[in-house]
Design brief:
The strands form 2 sheets. The chain has a 6-stranded antiparallel sheet with strand order 1-8-5-10-3-2, covered by helices on one side. It has a 4-stranded antiparallel sheet with strand order 4-9-6-7, with no helix packed on it. The chain has about 170 residues and is α+β, with helices and mostly antiparallel strands. The protein has helices at about 10-20, 40-55, 115-120, 125-130, and strands at about 1-5, 25-30, 65-75, 80, 90-95, 105, 135, 145, 155, 165-174. The two termini are about 20 Å apart. The protein contains 4 helices and 10 strands; from the N terminus they run βαβαββββααββββ.
Length: about 170
């Protein structure tokens, strides 16, 4: 799910980052009190809204943070391909995304790249049928993406001169 969070998140969160003085990777594993993380309420409200938009009965579910990480990616930083475990959904809320600061990449493990026949398809056929080894997405400030935790993903190299800031999270839905 791609979901545009409320306006003003960049200013709100960047100010919060400065005043919280959190380290480069601040991890709140198994957050016992979600209010301990400065942006949990904001993330939770947008999660509830996104889930309602896609037809979930949010009055019948409980969303629990399993992990919340503030990522500050300095120039030239990147994240290798990985998956998450022990959660229902994973997500990212982008706070500051300078131009050329790296794309968010979903990796398709079912592309059949080894099949010779696929290599002979036209680019248009591959595109219209979503036959690709990966999907490269240019994040937008204030946008949140929610995805299955077993979907392999990575972040490209930050080629800008500024820090890239995002909040990654894993949640349990029950």
């Amino acid at each position: 799910f791609f979901f545009q969070a409320e306006d003003g998140i960049r200013d709100h969160c960047v100010t919060g980052v400065q005043t919280c003085a959190l380290p480069i990777y601040a991890s709140f594993q198994h957050v016992p009190n979600h209010s301990d993380f400065p942006f949990w309420e904001y993330i939770n409200l947008n999660l509830q809204s996104a889930m309602q938009h896609y037809g979930f009965k949010t009055n019948q579910i409980t969303i629990t943070a399993k992990m919340i990480v503030l990522n500050i990616g300095s120039p030239q930083s990147y994240h290798v391909a990985h998956i998450h475990g022990e959660c229902t959904l994973s997500g990212v809320l982008w706070i500051r995304i300078p131009e050329n600061s790296g794309k968010f990449i979903f990796h398709n493990d079912q592309t059949y790249e080894q099949c010779d026949l696929i290599n002979h398809l036209s680019a248009d056929t591959k595109s219209s049928n979503l036959i690709a080894p990966s999907y490269h997405y240019r994040p937008k400030e204030g946008q949140m993406v929610i995805f299955p935790p077993n979907l392999r993903h990575s972040v490209g190299s930050n080629e800008s001169t500024e820090d890239r800031i995002s909040i990654a999270f894993n949640i349990k839905v029950s």
